Here is the input.
Amino acid sequence: MQPGSTHAALVVAASGEMLVEHVTTKRPQAGEILVSSLRASICGSDLDMLRGARPIGTRILGHEGVARVVAVGPDVTDLTVGQYVTFFPNNPANFNDTLGVNSEGLFQQYLLIPRSSVERGMAIPFASGIPLVCGPLVEPFATVIYGQRLLRRVVSPESMVVVGAGPIGLLNALLARAEGCAQIFLVGTSQARLDWAVQRGIVDDSHTLLNTPELADALLERTGSRGIDAAHLCTPRSATRVVLQQALRYVREEGAIDLTAGSDAPAAIPELPGVDLNEIRQANVCGLGHEVNQYTTREGKRLWLTGHSGGSASYIQESMALLQKDPAYYARVISHIVPYRAAPPIFAHLLADDQRAVAGEPCVKAIIDFTSEDGEISVFYPDQMAAVLAAESAITRNAG
Here is the structure.
């Protein structure tokens, strides 16, 4: 289907709400491409921008997704009409050039990708064999792979704690399990989220813990006082200092900790005098850095500490290879499929940190379907992947 003069988009209103509006459909000029968004997902960074916790430079967010090329301008040789693409949203040469942050993102039916972004490889061919519904997992999973590869430079974990039961935390748990980590603990603030992760087969019931002041003692007891080999801290910026202080207690001597998020001010804790937590995270951006440094706590414990932001084109390729191998395994983190006109209430639900179920399930990872205008929000079950693939094949046939 060829685009008209306007198309639907999820737009950030002055109030911070998300609204469905019609915007002008741009036409590609020399070196540019026009893509049709198929599936996109809501990231924690999108919610941070809507809360005002991070700068926002566009009214149309969205950087996780899969799209189809519908038109190309002159001079475009690497991408063709009909090709499916995913996205490397960050520009390693300019951190102020990020898809869905400083430029229009994927939360719209059509997106024009400018020449500079085409030339830097922002649109990456989408690997065959990956269901479209898994397309929005490619970029966040690449970030997860980056963090785990950093920690494996200094430790081969037999035990791991993942703090945070959101999509990044759950993908960390799934990857660690796939790579043979014997003991994976999932820590969260919502019992409903933890129960959901158990029901999805992401972790064992005996390895979930609510985050309480007694967390460190409980983990030390579970490991016979030995401590945990590695910890991935996948919480919002506002929680970074507290969860790191806990991790310094339960991670063993010479163990390793990864910060997935930065820290609100002050970006320091008394247990690590003179250490700026944001500088640690900013040392590894877009796959360019591989710093993992050892620090000694105020109490004399030696630990490895690192952090990271984003992934890279190579990690996106590794992400797609793993998703190709077993899409249903990683799709366990997807909770809902949302027609785009039904998406604004989902944003409101997540911004309010509403723990009530949506269509009977906790809203963990919502995939926005830009090929479906109307309809109900539906729960996604990975064991229904065959039916999902059949529905998607009809979409791709119609697109062709």
